[in-house]
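Internal tracking record. Fields below are filled automatically when a chain is submitted to the structure queue. Please do not edit lines marked as system-generated. If the sequence contains nonstandard residues, flag them in the REMARKS field before resubmitting.
Queue: standard
Priority: normal
Entity type: single polypeptide chain
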Amino acid sequence: MTDVTANERSTFEIVAREDFSDVTYLLEIHHPLMARAARPGQFVIVMSHEHGERIPLTIADFDRQEGTVTLVIQAVGKTTREMQQTCQVGTKLYAVVGPMGDPSHTGGARKIVCVGGGLGVAPIFPQARAFKESGAYVIGVVGFRTKDLVFWEAKFRACCDEFIVCTDDGSAGIKGLITDGIKLAIAKHPDIGELVAIGPPVMMKACAEATRPHKIRTVVSLNPIMVDGTGMCGGCRVKVGGQVKFACVDGPDFDGHQVDFDDLMSRLRRFREEEKVALERWSASCRMKNPISPGPPESLPPAQAAPGLSTAQVPPDLASEPLVLPDPFEEVEGG
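SYSTEM-GENERATED OUTPUT FOLLOWS
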């Protein structure tokens, strides 16, 4: 067993935060041991407070020297919306388990396309960097709705030999979908050996169909419903090539041409009504009784703070405006 000094033990403190849009935000967690162990393609399971839900989040970046792990989160449900309010610099997460999952295989490819759409833009970055470090020619393709939502462009350009940005409105890069960027890359490089895609299921399915006629190996990263992350609960089962696999231990990377995406999307929607009720109940509790007033975090009433976390000031607009969240199964704003 490796000896761990006191200053290496992580308290899961949030040391940096950045908001990319109204629904997408970055959290940088101090966790030296995990930063040292993390590999591209792996994920963590996070609990924001003692009574919180366990949610899987793909590792978007890690810095071994600084001892930090970066997560990019999208507010698509009760827990991620709650974390958007409470997870501020200086607060701490109750639990972070990982790194979990089989690391991505980033060696051997001579020319590869790394595709990120929706929330997949962030976690495709460490894969692009790893492929570049292994000596591959890397073509990055990322998609956003508009120029204002583009992030990490400089980071991608630093590790990609070519970089294609796709936007719905054409305000940055080319106007079109992720698949339009893939078609451009294939037309220019008929010797592409592999494509890796991370994003909403409908996007990854489209990527797999775009490469199928060209017989390009296509790897997708799946993030189904997950509970324990050890393969015991069976909640993350997916159908791949007619066989049942567990994303937490057999993946999260799978052959995109073999994944049953229709079954995956059906399973992801299985608890939509329960998720909606939980979100509405939490949203109502945030707005009842005392209105949120300006002031330091410690001045907030206890009812407005998440248990197990330091209190954080909640933006007034979140307490007064109707709650509108993106559909996690579609291309959504914020990368």
